[in-house]
Batch of 2 targets.
Target 1
Amino acid sequence: MATEKRIALEVNGRRHELSVASNQTLLDLLRELGYVDVKCGCEKADCGACAVLMDGEAVDSCIVLAAMADGRRVTTVTGLGTPEKPHPLQAAFIENGATQCGYCIPGMIVAAKALLDRHPEPTDAEMRFGLSGNLCRCTGYTRIFSAIREAAGALKAKGARP
Amino acid sequence: MLPEFDLVEPRTLGDALKVMAEDGGKTAPLAGGTNVLVDLRTRRAAYDRLISLQHLSELRGLGAANGQIILGARTTLSDLVYDRRIGEAAPGLAAAARVFAGAMVRNVATIAGNVCSASPAADLVPSLMTLGAEVVLQSTVGERVVPLDQFYPGVHQTVRRNNELVTSFRWARRPERSAQNFYKLALRKGDAIAVTSVAVLLGAERGTCTIARIALGAVAPTVMRVPEAERILVGGVLTDAVIEKAASIAAEACRPIDDIRASAEYRCHAVGVLVRRLVGQAWQNIC
Amino acid sequence: MSDTVLTAPAGVNIPEFRQVGKPLPRTDAPGKTFGRTVYAGDIVMPNMLYAKVLRSTAASLTIKKVDASRARALPGVHAVLTAWDLPDRLVQTDIPGQTGQRSLNAAQPILVKDHVRFSGEALALVAAESLAIAEAALLLIDVESEPFPGVYDPFEAMKPEAPVVFGENNVIKTYKIRKGDAAKGFAEADLIVENTFHTQVQEQAFLEPEAGIAWVDENDVINIRVSTQVVEHFRAVADALGVPHNRVQVKSMFVGGGFGGKENITVELYLALLARATRRPVRLVFTREESFVAHGKRHPFTIRHRTGVKRDGTIVAAEADLTSDAGAYATLSPYILLYATIAAMGPYRVADLKFDSRTVATNNQPNDAFRGFGTMQACVAHEQQMDEIAKALKLDPIELRRRNFIRRGEKNSTGQTIESEVWSSRCVEAAWEALGPRASNRGSVRVGRGVACYQQSYGRISWFRDTCEAWVGIELDGTVIVRTAVTDIGAGQSSAVAQIAGEVLGVPLKEIVTYFGDTALNPLAGTSTASRALFMTGNAVKLAATAVRENLLGRAAKHFGLPVESLDIANSTVFVVNDPARTLPLPELAKMCATEGIHRNNLAIYRAPTSTGLDPETGQGRVFADFTYGAHAAEVEVDVETGEITVLKSVGAHDVGQAINRAAVEGQIEGSALMGQGFALSEEMKFREGRTLTTSLSEYLIPTAEDAPEIKAIVFESRSGFGPFGAKGIGEPAYAPVAASIANAVADAIGVRIHDLPITSEKVVRALRRAKTA
């Protein structure tokens, strides 16, 4: 039997209190709440399309139970920036033509954010390692790498934490 | 979609063990979910109840006591990658973590999850085995310690009892003059299941090999040590000929199968090459 | 990371483009980057039901009964459809085209009634209140079946005793091409080289699994929002349902990757059936596992080449024999076979040739369209053959190719005259040079390099009489609307056509919106397949925009009292070329036109060059509008002990005619480099008795960020193509030579040829061992 649980979580700065079934994943919950920028690609943590930040750490939301997100702070790509106030990664992805079909991009940018949090100036190897769980079928990653390098530079110039 | 199950979220280890002791149907501890939830969704496994270890933060991280290194069961793969002290204590383990899955999975997957998957291809097990690691199991009735090389009675089986929780791994601090390394051969560079993996730990004193441990992954129903090969390395200087001999013993000893990733024949060949290389490199590091 | 070399053919005047050719940020990029783009599976409607498909897990069965009564009785289930609930209609999987003509009777059942022909074939459809109920209902459908003998290899399937899957003997289609006198050519050859190559089944592995939603509206129109490359399937859906064509509307959302895998019908028909049965909105999203078994994949080919050459490398005779495994239904297999057969000669000239080919039905999953469409499999074979010839003649592989490249004005294998530039030589030279200093061997690591060249068509087969329509209009505030039902599958189709309209109308890209992918509200553009979208839709948009420009400038000329030729438009302002201070803002001009009833919009049609077909005996005739030429070069290192291969550098150099969006073009080349690397080294669908063994992205291995080499894109612009501003197609061409170049690099590294892809570490070890004992 599935058990129900009351949880409270924060998504992109907005608080949600609701009841979830034990077998509901965070991915399902987020999409049900309207955060459809979190994409579903495989439901088994093979592709990274559903990556979100949970208390700042990148996770595949398809293998996190919604119940276990109780009390956590979740950030999706929508929460990172807007056209008016883009995150440097978002600006660089647009500027570098890093987006093709775009389906991997929300997860990719989330993973890139976590990467730059850990390595503000990532080496090539660190960058590849940090994106190893995010599959992209369109770009060959070339422009994704350039965008991340550029964003790292922009963040450094601003002296800001990513 | 995930099938239905009960979710229990104990706040303390004591509570967790109590829940484990109750009869709640088929139960699995849940940490990173990278095995349990995937198996549930793909219907490779069915559970009535999952016990979340999320709140048991005492089970995470590196410690030491009585000359032993203790690694909490809930230590994540990312911890293994980024915690320098783990890299120093067990370089082969850190190396295995670096080729394990992708970044998001490493953030949540735990050492106990990988060990308890009991997959012959589990990335961490060969390195842990060469460390001589023991598995610490706890239940409401007490603690039980099982050497990792006796932990697996068969493929996808462990000796963990239903009321027990793996709480830590421990092993004797490796000697000053020792080296550990690991290599995974896979069909792509990122996020791939091992075709075969090899871990080696060597120790030396005054130019003589004093410790030799070799463990092989994905070439038998369980990760296996190769005592025959280890024996011929201990007690002497490791010449190319001796190393070559150990490598060919290892290649002969493994019992792989053909599967979608590779043939048994190729796996044996790869074991020979990798054992020779890893033993040679480890030896160079310490002599 | 990219160079652009602009060299115009002599005598061509190069206008200064304001937008075309620039690497402008695409119009679709912000939505995708800020998480605002709505994909088909993101749409929710009130009262929506969730659909699931019951599929066979065995590949060959006789169905006795499908009993859905228990499933129908489950609370929350609104419809369960089996073959018995559907009229005996089939769905046409043949190319629907825009002409209503079909060249093959390749229909297949919507749901299986009597005979399961492949693992994954659909047996029943469910619509329910929730996904959980729909999944539960699937388990309550009782299927009674008996095993039926199956056949899983095309060569077995051609034997007289083989079980029949298709037609009378499983051979779906054959082609032959005859030119000159092959026997005479071989007799004159100094050397004959013969090799057989094999390619595997490849999965498109787009990141977005198939998805869609459908409902029936107040006018009895079935509305479908779907992730598809081809909205024109609305006709096939209507025919399959037995409703008029004008009662089905298909709108393609931004597609999360297609690569040919969303060229055929995916969820549309199931959704239409369930929406009609329930009168409620129904959503269907495939799981990844389902996606792996639901759509057609790349055909495996066995290709034998026999080539006669002179000592100086001149090819004097060519014989090729191609066999592809079509799987259980014909789908597009005949056309893919045709592409492969024509491409078997590569970008080379030969007077005497003899090619034979066939595509054969088996009980494997149907194979279907995939980027390259037979040409890339052909390229894997002909480019390895070229390297083997070079080796036998002790000639430099690039020099051998240079001596044989077809030239503009010459005739290719089917006798079609090449009308555009052929810059194969400069492409292969540039790609090779861009590899830079060669890495060196060390320990057990051997470094190798390889190149590959190709001839790939863009645009559909000429006798399909392909057309494309587009509408361009200017609003009263000077903003521009482009309306065309082209689908945007991620290559930037909607953005590129906006850029073209902007170039013509002198309006910045941000002032233009493209409404795409809607069969009811937009003029039909044809498919985003066959590297045709930019070529066809770009031309139609350019025609429409040019007509609007003429109307606008006609009115502006009156305003200035000057001839039209003395005016130009830039930055939404008309100006006098010789006196740029004299201006007229476009919004003002648009209002003038509106007041006077001057047309501010235009609906244009572009018609591709046509032909009547091939001579059935000789295979001679025009098949395509035109071809793209280029080359790929790769450097690899191979560990000769473990067999592990690392691609170090990967360079694509292509004459794209004219880049419309530079960044998008380079993106196609870069993405191709890695997808082709996957095909060469790690990607392979595996089956046992037709049953799919690789149904996840952890078993089917596409390259990750850690597998990506240093990738470089080199763009040449001959401005000689049939597309807008002289553009050629690039989406598929960029992919065609990649795997072959890597295969050649591996052979160069280890000195042994591995004839079947993918080149796994195991195959390397085995090949080296065989070479040692031989």
Target 2
Amino acid sequence: MTYSTEDMARRAAREIPAGAIVNLGIGLPTQVADYLPEGHAWLHSENGLLGMGPFPFEGEEDPNLINAGKQTVTVLPGGSTFDSAWSFAMIRGGHVDLAILGAMQVSAGGDLANWAVPGGKVMGIGGAMDLASGCRRVIAMMQHTTKKGEHKLVARCDYPLTATRVVSLVITELGTFEPTGHAFRVIDLAPRVTREHAEGATGAPLI
Amino acid sequence: MMGKHANKVVGSIAEALAPLRDGMTIMVGGFGLSGNPEALIRGVVERGVKELTLVSNNAGNLGKGLATWLKAGIIRKVICSYIGGNEDLHTRMASGDVQVEITPQGSLAERMRAAGAGIPAFFTPTGVGTVVEEGKEVREIDGRRYLLERALHGDVALVRAAKADRFGNLRFWRTARNFNPVMASAARLTLVECDQLVDNGAIGPDDVHLPGIFVHRIVHVPEHENAFEYRTVRKR
């Protein structure tokens, strides 16, 4: 039995220390917020918001209060808004403790590829490169393989890179893995996922 | 003779946009459709200038905002960080009508901040070891590799503010602030569209988000569409 996306979000939430400043990437990582106790951490959104709260109640949404995915959000007491240069000074300057980001490929050396598929439509970089190279810790949250069964945890990324040697932990539906250089260390496996199953689904050695 | 900072408030969008010329580099504030100077954006299409270089994080979306410039065929080049689902930009890029330079979002902001602050270039860790590094100087400083990004200057910045006084001191609302202040500082001519216009003194000096030194013309536009891109809500 593999982890559901809710399980993965719950697992990722356990990596967030109390009082941390955290940036949650667009997509899967956004769900991590649902598993954080109220007031546990400060969420940063790179479009210029610190202290981001949940989606607004119906009728209270403001088109000029959004997250980086351009969804309407709220701001918590103690929160602040600021311009893009300040926002990325926070990121690049190492003031954001943790980024949890989606990924297309992660290498055993911790390289991250999450902005472009070779031959695919160019979607752009957005804040991905700044977050990956600037935040003090980077966790990747992703499906373990592609829909076609191709490896996404690999020895070497062949997708365009976002940053090199930055990922410290990978959370997938099969478990939690730590890039160590030439291999992924198994931190935990989902219930009834065998080591053989995880090995077959990974493009680099497991230790 | 009048100084650059006399009589900034103008009566119409057309008057504000009169200095625009073909081929200019125009910076436009906003993150997607949030914080857009909507009337100035519409006015540029009506003004009839073309061959523009547009600096914007997204160049519009959902056919709205700056996507109308793409549809009108007045853009030659876009400098942005993200395209995403902006089909108008995908179409113009694929056909070769519009050249697109994609810059990491933080480097885009900092390149304009640097331009406004008189810094010609800066070293950043963002993009090292990626395609962004191609053609750029790389230097190792204290054991870490950085690449050199150059300042990004504009001819004109179009800015949206929640409140302006007559000198051009500005206040912004929530996340509508985004790129607006750095663009105002990076352009030679900054045109502001404000929801609310107040007399000097009505914004306390400690409450100013962007000092009026970066602002040259102000148009009062009380009504805005403020389009939603993704309206996400929870039940009570």
